[in-house]
Structures are given as structure tokens and as C-alpha cells.
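The material for today's practical consists of a large collection of protein records. An example says more than a description, so a record of this kind follows:
***
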Amino acid sequence: MTDDVVVLRYGHRPGRDDRMTTHVGLTARALGADRVVLPDNAGQSAETIRDITDRFGGPFAVELRDDQRAYARRFEGTVVHLTMYGERVQDVEAGVRGDSVDADTPLLVVVGGEKVPFDFYEEADYNVGVTNQPHSEVAGLAVFLDRLFEGAELEREWTDADRVVLPQETGKRVVDPATAAAERDGDDGDAAADDA
């Protein structure tokens, strides 16, 4: 399986897109991508994503670039552009997986934050639509990554985490990694949980 799935957030309007750009990065991280490339004016989003990675584990990288179009054009691997006007994800997911994940070839997933220039459509290997209906680019990215990894990303192990969220039916339970490991191994552990 490739270890280089990159999400490129094309465009960022400071003030208006801060939350959405941050969520694109957090979704990329949580659902299997290895890094996110943000526009150079999205520094606040980049810092938030890095902070989450520091606290909840990685590896995951965040880059700020001012040459997004050139970056996508020069990318050596498979390029997928997520757009509501693309081919249905369910019709192309096997092809994308075969061209990238199974072939151990880098994959670039382009997620627009503003009007995407037409050359992205022309240069992408795949223009992919999730439902072909208006919706959030975060939702489209989440569905695409889940389809790409066939759910395997949900079992990912995180390293260098300061905090681990323990699944439970009700409430919130956040503990240090030693406590999480002890509980997985059947030991009660003495470390305190943080009811975040």
C-alpha cells in the first residue's frame, strides 16, 4: 500500500474558509492520508492541524505552498480531483485504488476551496463526484478516502500521541497512551483519565 496519499486544498479565503480548510486537513489526517498541502495563506489552519497531530498522534505532515497549480501539474503519481461534476465514486474507486494504493504509486487528491480552474479537470487522472449533488468538500473527502482504503483506515494505529480517545457507549474518555495500552492488554492501569 502506498505511503504517500496527499490531499491538496486548492484555494483559501482567510476568515471565510478557516474552519473548512482546517476540517479538510483533519479529515485527511483521520482517514488515512499522509499529508495535506494548504495554500500559503492558510497558516492558522496549518497550525491547528499540527497541534492536533502533536496531541493525538501521527505521522501526518502539513505543508504551506504558494504554487498549488504547479504542484498538481508536476505531481508524479495519480491525481484525483473531487468535484460534484465528476464520475461517480462508486464507478471509479476500484480503478483509482488499482492505479495508486495497490500499485504503491503516490496519490494526490485535490479538494477545492474556491472555483477550481478548468485545467485541474483536464489534467486530473480522475474527476470524481460523491453523489453529484452540492455538499461539503469535507464530506466528499471523507467518503472518497473511506472508499479508497475500504475501511482499513479506521483501524489505523497512531504513534507519538499525548492523548488517546477510548471508545465507549456514553461520555468522553481521553487517557494517556500508557493507560490505553494497559487497558488494551487487560490491565486496569493506574494512570488517570482526562474527562475532556
User: Anything to note?
Assistant: DSSP finds seven helices and eight strands in the chain. The longest strand covers residues 78-88. Confidence is low (pLDDT under 50) at residues 189-193.
